[in-house]
């Protein structure tokens, strides 16, 4: 599956009672916005824009080694994990931390929250991310960085591999390297949730996630197949050595596939995805984003 031209995937319209404003801005907005975005395949995706806070403006002066300014801080597009969503507390905590380093666009993948459609667990979600990236550009930001967690971590890798992704750096946290992994108990439970009718009912009513009943056809490129196509875009891979879903051979496979292009952080004692991302880790991710010039 290919996402199509990154510049052709998005139409946006206001959620009732959201703030108004021009769709395409010459300067980034200074107040929060909430919108529905329409993806290339016609799914409405709920997205929220949070402008960067005072802290990064005051304490992070962007410059290269010669002292030449690199410009304004980026917009960071956050891609959540499976069963997450734009208004989930753990996602909002990540957003709040990253607004110290740039403005943030967060969104709910298809089948999650108030977004339309059904989750395809990492396949068509590339179109959702492409829509969010396009909206970030429409809002007047020159530089866009994607940060994804778990399922979202696989999506940002696949999206970054597209020749027209339109991003300046990518961070993948707690992502799988390969599909259909069932080597841990949490992943066996997840496969039951996705593949069985009873599991999909639990997903809908227990986790607020509508899951598509069809198998992938064709099977999309895996994260490890996508990583070699990301260069020269800066890439950071973050993974916990206590991740209960994907053991450390997954991030090592991803880093090896990058052939020296990616930076790998194996975090001691860290579990899985947004819930395990400490404020200290998110600060280091934010510093990395600024340090790339992304």
TrEMBL record:
**Source taxon at top rank:** Bacteria
Region Disordered: list its residue ranges: 1-35
- Tell me the organism: Streptomyces ossamyceticus
Q: Which family does it belong to?
A: Belongs to the AB hydrolase superfamily. FUS2 hydrolase family.
Q: What is this protein called?
A: Alpha/beta fold hydrolase
Which part of the chain is the AB hydrolase-1 domain? 74-175
Q: Which Gene3D superfamilies match?
A: alpha/beta hydrolase
User: What are the alphabetically sorted keywords of the record?
Assistant: Hydrolase
Q: Which PANTHER family does the record associate with it? A: DIENELACTONE HYDROLASE DOMAIN-CONTAINING PROTEIN-RELATED (PTHR22946)
Question: One MF term from GO for this chain?
Answer: hydrolase activity
């Amino acid at each position: 599956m290919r996402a199509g031209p990154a510049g052709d995937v998005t139409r946006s319209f206001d959620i009732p009672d959201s703030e108004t404003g021009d769709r395409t801005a010459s300067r980034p907005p200074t107040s929060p916005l909430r919108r529905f975005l329409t993806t290339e395949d016609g799914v409405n995706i709920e997205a929220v824009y949070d402008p960067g806070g005072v802290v990064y403006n005051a304490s992070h002066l962007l410059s290269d080694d010669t002292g030449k300014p690199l410009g304004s801080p980026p917009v960071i597009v956050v891609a959540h994990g499976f069963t997450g969503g734009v208004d989930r507390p753990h996602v909002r905590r990540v957003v709040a931390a990253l607004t110290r380093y740039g403005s943030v666009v967060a969104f709910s993948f298809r089948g999650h929250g108030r977004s339309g459609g059904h989750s395809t667990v990492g396949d068509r979600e590339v179109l959702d991310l492409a829509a969010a990236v396009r909206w970030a550009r429409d809002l007047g930001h020159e530089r866009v960085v994607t940060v994804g967690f778990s399922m979202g971590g696989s999506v940002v890798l696949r999206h970054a591999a597209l020749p027209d992704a339109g991003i300046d750096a990518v961070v993948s946290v707690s992502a799988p390297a390969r599909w259909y992994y069932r080597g841990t108990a949490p992943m066996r439970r997840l496969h039951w949730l996705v593949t069985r009718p009873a599991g999909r009912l639990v997903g809908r009513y227990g986790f607020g996630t509508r899951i598509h009943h069809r198998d992938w056809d064709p099977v999309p490129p895996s994260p490890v197949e996508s990583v070699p196509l990301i260069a020269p875009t800066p890439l950071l891979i973050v993974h916990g050595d206590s991740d209960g879903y994907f053991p450390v051979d997954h991030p090592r496979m991803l880093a090896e596939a990058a052939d020296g292009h990616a930076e790998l952080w194996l975090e001691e004692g860290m579990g899985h995805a947004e819930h395990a991302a400490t404020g200290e880790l998110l600060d280091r991710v934010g510093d990395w984003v600024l340090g790339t010039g992304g």
